[in-house]
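Hi everyone, sorry if this is the wrong subforum. Our group has a chain we'd like a structural model of before ordering constructs, and none of us has done structure prediction before. Sequence below.
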Amino acid sequence: MWREKDVGKRRWGDRRDGTLIRDIDAMHYVMPLMYPNRCDNEAFMSMTVDIAGTEEYIRKFNAEHPEARISIFDLVIAAMLKTIRLRPQMNRFIANKNVYQRNNITAAFTVKKEFRDDGDETLARVVAEDGDTLADISAKVRSQISFCKKEDDESTDAMNVIKKLPFKHLIGLVARFLDRHGWMPQSVIATDPYQCSVVLSNLGSIGMNIGYHHLMNWGTTSIFVIVGTKKFKPSYDAQGNVTMKKVIDLSFTIDERISDGFYYGKSMKLLKKLLENPELMEGKLSEEVRL
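Answer:
Right subforum, don't worry. Here is the predicted structure as tokens:
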């Protein structure tokens, strides 16, 4: 069984970005051998979150901290990072048919520089620390968005360089080989959004609802999250009475090989609890939350 304290003690078989899980059950050992491609192992889930209390929390927080306002997307990122911290199997990835525990907790998301058809997109990346609070993570998100709207991120710069080089097929072959074996330079791992714990897309910000997004065989990301638009939805109590509640829908595409359905289900319950009770994220990222 992988233990958190094992991270940092690099041994033969470990990668720069992950610790090889050596004591693993037979099913999860065999699955990457039989089904080596991440895109062939996608599990799709969705969740509806009651945000009445969440929006009240945001209003109160922003009134008290006008210089450091938060948004619903900040909360989703923070809740996802805390869930991954408290549920470490959600931070696993599979590469070269081996299962690894990622050495850090990171989230990536797309930033649209201008809301126009020809507006450029760039990629933001947030690295979480155990001591981070909701306010800390929100500040990191705001900082990344501000930077990305003014500058290209390093991964975009790298892609612009590659676009100008000859022998693109050879470059692709070499890059995939290095990626598969964990030999990509640390500078690439540190800026590539698909080397993160989770990638998120806020479709609600452009008035769209949730949908499906595939995983990538490139990189190490095992989870993709889509955030939908806010809307009202009927809710029924035990007596059949109906009330309209304000909600957002989330959808998840997860590499099913990294854990099992029971573990995913419990992780989703934790995520939902955090989003509906944001005050639980005011403490450190590593603070336990009881389900």
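For your construct planning: The CA atoms of residues 41 and 235 lie 33 Å apart. The helical segments are 26-34, 52-64, 72-86, 134-150, 154-163, 168-181, 186-189, 261-276.
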